[in-house]
Amino acid sequence: MNGQLRVLRAGRGETIQDGGRHGYMRYGVTSSGPMDWVAHSTANRVLGNGPGAAAIEVAISGIDLRCEVAPLRIAYAGGDFVFTYNGKRRLPNAGLVRLNPGDVVSVEAGSWGVWTYVAIPGGINVPPVLNSRSTNLGSQFGGLDGRNLAPGDVLCPIAQTSPETRNGLEAIAAPWLAKSTKRIRLILGPQDDFFESSSMETLFREPYSVSPRFNRVGYWLDGPLFKHSSKGYNIVSDGIAFGSIQVPGSGQAVVLLADRQPTGGYPKIATVIRADVGHLAQTRPGQELRFERCDFDQARDALLELDQNLGRIAEYILPAGSTDSEYLLGCNLIDGVVSVGDG
Q1: 196 plus 137 within the same structural domain
Q2: With b meaning 16 or more CB within 10 Å and e meaning fewer, what string describes 153-190?
Q3: CATH number for the domain including 224?
């Protein structure tokens, strides 16, 4: 018999997301999927799932989950969120924990980050729609009837659970999960010729910040406005990639993300590289962003390096009781106890 998770509390941003609904943008269906694919993949790989298995995407509004029926392992990774076990013991910021029936894990926003992910063995068992279990909020399909998670929802694993970990708790000490202090790398285009040269200089020189106007569709950027060239700001609508920076006539840029529209008729000055799009998605409103130019070879090398590190995820899992400083700082050591879930 498999364990399951019951949602006790959920905010307005918690959904089920797998690796995305690919191959249907030509029909007007957006890909959806995780906002931070790296954190999503990390949580899945720790459990031995495929990197695109369906998991819970938790926004800064947070969630409470209770284990029921049988023991269940969960893995979680993302921004700096506070994970609390049974209301009193803080877990590492990213880790793998065994839950027994009745155990409750609470997730609240921490000092930085917008998204974190909770994975269960094999992924969450909901019916696939167009070959994906991802929630499409705009079209209201996928996940649980195309909606946000709500109290009372029950989430079951696809795979038979294997609840044992070494001491009930392990931490993920992966460097790619740390808050990034680097500039977000961009590839110019495909319509950078629709902007004055001064706008290109501004893009890589001036700071920007995420506007309060942000969601899974896109993040609007506050900062210097961009100036279009004599070509204007209308183009024949074309496809929009994950991370495209589109600039309408107002000159204010928007970075288009997981729930973006499939096509758009405004020029795109640049695109965030795949390896950095998760870092951008973890940026909260008001926090500063800076950009730097990148070429295709650099973007490919960054992605390959990240993929190789994710493939070695076992090297970044620390046993409970580790003396690694990052791990210890992520735990509540008031009572001197690190491991949980042994009962």
Answers
A1: no
A2: bebbbbeebebebeebbbbbbbebbeeeeeebbbbbeb
A3: 2.40.100.10
Give a yes or no: residue 74 inside a domain.
yes
Two structure tokens written together for 156: 């079951």
- Does one domain contain both 71 and 199? no
Give the span between the Cα atoms of 122 and 145, in whole angstroms.
Answer: 20
Omega before 319 cis (within 30°)? no
Retrieve residue 92's tokens. Answer: 């590492």
Question: Are residues 196 and 153 both part of a single domain?
Answer: no
Q: Which pTM value belongs to this model?
A: 0.91
Exposed / middle / buried, residue 296 (Cβ in 10 Å: 0-12, 13-18, 19+): exposed
3-state SS class at 29: coil
Angle at 220 between CA 248 and CA 284, to 5 degrees: 170
Burial of 311 (0-12, 13-18, 19+ CB in 10 A): exposed
- Cα separation of 337 and 325, whole Å? 15
CA 48 to each of CA 84, 121, 126, 273, 307: distance values in angstroms, whole numbers, following the listed order: 24, 8, 19, 27, 15
Pair 145, 192 in one domain = no
What domain range is 158 assigned to?
A: 4-177+313-329
Task: Evaluate whether residue 308 is within a structural domain.
Answer: no
Q: 252 in a domain, yes or no? A: yes
Task: Tally the domains of the chain.
Answer: 2
Q: Is 336 inside any structural domain? A: no
* C-alpha gyration radius of the chain: 20
pLDDT at 17: 98
What stretches of the chain show up as alpha helix (H) in DSSP?
37-46, 197-205, 277-281, 296-311, 325-329
* Average pLDDT by stretches of 10, the chain with 343 residues: 94 96 93 98 96 97 97 96 92 94 96 97 97 96 97 93 67 93 95 95 96 96 96 94 97 97 95 97 96 97 96 88 47 37 39
